[in-house]
Each structure stands twice: as C-alpha cells, then as structure tokens.
Amino acid sequence: xxxxxxxxxxxxxxxxxxxxxxxxxxxxxxxxxxxxxxxxxxxxxxxxxxxxxxxxxxxxxxxxxxxxxxxxxxxxxxxxxxxxxxxxxxxxxxxxxxxxxxxxxxxxxxxxxxxxxxxxxxxxxxxxxxxxxxxxxxxxxxx
Length: 143
Description:
143 residues; Arc Repressor Mutant, subunit A; three-stranded antiparallel β-sheet; three-stranded mixed β-sheet; 4 helices; 6 strands; 19% strand; globular; disordered N terminus
C-alpha cells in the first residue's frame, strides 16, 4: 500500500500558537509536523508525515518525526492508535472517540462514542479504575 503525502493547510501562525500554548518550542520541523497533522481531524502514520515533509522541504530525519510525534502525544496534541502490531497511526482528534479500520485500504474512520454501547464491562482488577476505552472495529469489503 502506498502512503499518499498529505498537503499541509494549518497556517504557520496557528501552528506556532498551538505549540506555544503547550509549552513546546516551535522549531521549524515541529511547526511543519503540526501544520500537517493538526490541520483537521486526521489519522496519519509517521511515514505519511515524513513523506510530506520530504516533498516540501528536503531532508528530514525519521528520528525527528518520531520524536516530534512522541512529544505531541505527551503534550496532548495527538494520540497514538496501534492499528496493528506493525503500524501506529497518529490521531489529531483528542476528544474521546472510537474507530473503524478498513483492512483493505488502511483508512481509519472516526466513530462517535454515542454510537457505541457497552452492555457491561468485565470486573476490573482490584485497586484500578477505567481511564479510557478505545475500540477499533476492523472492516473489509464484502466478498
């Protein structure tokens, strides 16, 4: 599966403000990642972000992209979705929600949490409480 590059559309001034609000130093590379990922509700892999960066501004290291994404996750600007053991997708929507994952295309589609009901939860281990519930429903084209 090819990973199409995504055109950034978040104004650089807004990207800078978002980073500064979180206490993140707005380096050129962090700003570019923010412009790509934080534009709108998106689900992108590090490889898609890296491809977009390299198309627009030449060499950017893979380590820089991963370090920036990890920082964004730590600071609450993005969250990681482990779609499968070999692929992590970064989600720019921080409000609670779930996902459909299209196994044919790799596309992640948001599900409003109000559309999903749990009849009951399993008994929690002693001394713990639920922090969050993340559901990924994997779908594929009908045969």
